[in-house]
Amino acid sequence: MHLNLAGSPLIVLSTQIAARDLLSKRGALYSNRPHTIFASELATRGMHLVNRPFDDAYRLRKRLQAPLLNESASNRYRTIQDLESRKLPFDILEGYYRQGEKGQDIQYISRRATASVIYTILYCYRMKTDKDQHILNAQHVHESFTATASFSKYLGDIFPVLNALPRALAPWKIKGDSLYKMETDLHLANLEKGFTNPGWNFTKHIMRTNKESGGFSMGELAWDIGVVAHAAFDTLSIAVEWFILA
Q1: How far apart, in whole angstroms, are the C-alpha atoms of residue 83 and residue 131?
Q2: Which end of the chain is more exposed for a tag (fewer CB within 10 A), N or C?
């Protein structure tokens, strides 16, 4: 199916066969991401995996992550998932007894559960409450980015020639700098925590593998791992919320 969104073509793949044929078998031709000046260049500076072109650096990043994100590896995380799946209904019932008829926001409970699973795997850090400062910090960064990094929201995306202006005359550049620093600081702090925390975690494995291959800087690794952590505040938590509602 072909759609035209304000002049931007959009192809909808409605079958698994078509998606696999174009994005897997012929991924080198069709897997590039749309390039946006604000999100790709200013707010992430090419560090976010979603905004990277499908090039050799992208494929190397995927190879670093693949041994820890495939089906075989996911089976080793079941103990962590089992723990949080037991605490999730406990939190729901505890919230009901505490809030009564006023009700409760299931979003915060589901995000604590999904964030705790992912942060334990990535950084060996478990989040015990939805008021954990790591959740609040990560949620703030995630919401700030998703609220401001949409395409065509800034003049620099609509009229690329305007990006030649100095920062004093291009407020979207200043906003991009702020978002980039906020997210980089979060990812670097989490990387340090994962490296120093006791026990195995995703961060230590990636850093050891990268040291042997000498592929990426600490900043790049922090972003690559941090992008995986973002799933706790988006697709995964939404899936859990729908499961609870169902």
Answers
A1: 19
A2: C
